[in-house]
Amino acid sequence: MVSSSATSKSSHSSPASTATSHSSHITIIHCHLITTTSPLKKWTPGAQERDGGDSPSGFPVIFDKELLAFLAEETNMYAVFRRAEAVAWHQANEKETAIFMGLVLLMGIVKLPSIRNCWTNSRLHNYPVFQRAMSGKRFLAILKYFHAFNCRAVPLGNTDSLIKVRPVMEYLLRLFKSVYTPTQNLSRDEGSLGWKGRLHFRVYNPMKPTKYANKVYLVAEAKSGYICNLQVYTGEKRKLEDTVGDLIQLLISHSYRLYMDNYYNSVRLCEVHLSRLVYVCGTLRLMRGAPKRLQDMAKPRRLADYALESMHRNGVHVLIWKDKKVVPMVSTMHTNATIEKTINKKEKGQDGKHHHVLHTIQKPVMVED
């Protein structure tokens, strides 16, 4: 710092003789799923036009014909593989698979004690939309055999814990990126997918509302919350720089603004992102590259209330500001500029009582943003 100033599909080809042909067929389907969605032609924030000039909207954008056909075929093949249990199985088609997926999404909104309650006629739990869309017996049958991958396509020595959902997940991620381009401000954080089943990369956090969950790294549009990219944590040990770098590949050279908390931020990471024209702002753990002088100033009773100290180098500004406690920040899109703010502070008066008093303070723009 040189100058200073004041964020299973199990194997289901039935006979052994058809294993080779079935495996190659599945591989072709997976390749088709991954390559059907084209990347963005230009950087224009907002919803993107698809082939033919139609603006995307609604359920068919995500669950399109290619994906529904893939899921229907995989489900049918697994049902055939389990023929001993599949009594009078009727082949699922694209339309039926679309209805099934729609009902699954609806169950996330209409939460009932069990799946069977969705088809009950009781006055307490009566939602005719389920009965009109599909019978409960058919829904449970599809649910029992629903699959998205064939284990015969898994290579020997596979280390990918998500291989059974990888083709669908990558297809959907490419689709998310192609149908909508986020605006300039983005947030980088974590999400949790509640899960109490057996899974070796499931995490436990007693401080979270959802204590047992699968952890997901996210990049989302700050304004709408639209998820632009994600990675599921599967227990592997990776550097934070590598994780963040993979998530922002699509953002490089588009002058996006990425807001992160102190779990991910470091001075080194800010320098790397700045070289890729991705601007960063967020809180900082001072031991991650902050100047020694600022680390010393952040110690208790070293900084007066609402005082500011900052240093910068190569376009990276590190700042500490004393509010109720010291707030360390790092940014590649701000300076140490401040704005005038009026705060309401409770103070003890000469009469011994507490009163609300208005104060005018100088607050860093970096903290305000």
Short description:
By secondary structure, this protein is α+β, with helices and mostly antiparallel strands. Helix content is 30%, strand content 24%.
Largest sheet entry: 10 strands, mixed
The termini sit apart by 23 Å
Average pLDDT rating = 81
Low-confidence runs of at least 5 consecutive residues: 1-32, 34-41
Order of helices and strands: EHEHHHHHHEEEEEHEHEHEEEEEH
Rounded to the nearest angstrom, the radius of gyration is 27 Å
Give the helix tally.
11
Secondary-structure-based class equals alpha+beta
Q: How much strand content do the residues show? A: 15-25%
Number of strands: 14
Proportion of helical residues? 25-40%
Give the overall form.
Answer: elongated
Explain what you see:
The protein is α+β, with helices and mostly antiparallel strands and 369 residues long. The protein is elongated. A hairpin with a 5-residue loop joins strand 13 (338-348) and strand 14 (354-364). It has helices at residues 19-35, 59-62, 65-81, 94-107, 128-133, 136-145, 166-179, 240-247, 267-275, 292-297, 365-368, and strands spanning 3-5, 46-47, 180-181, 185-194, 203-204, 212-221, 227-232, 256-260, 278-283, 308-313, 316-322, 326-331, 338-348, 354-364. Strands 1, 4, 5, 6, 7, 8, 9, 10, 11 and 12 form a ten-stranded mixed sheet that branches. A two-stranded antiparallel sheet has the order 2-3.
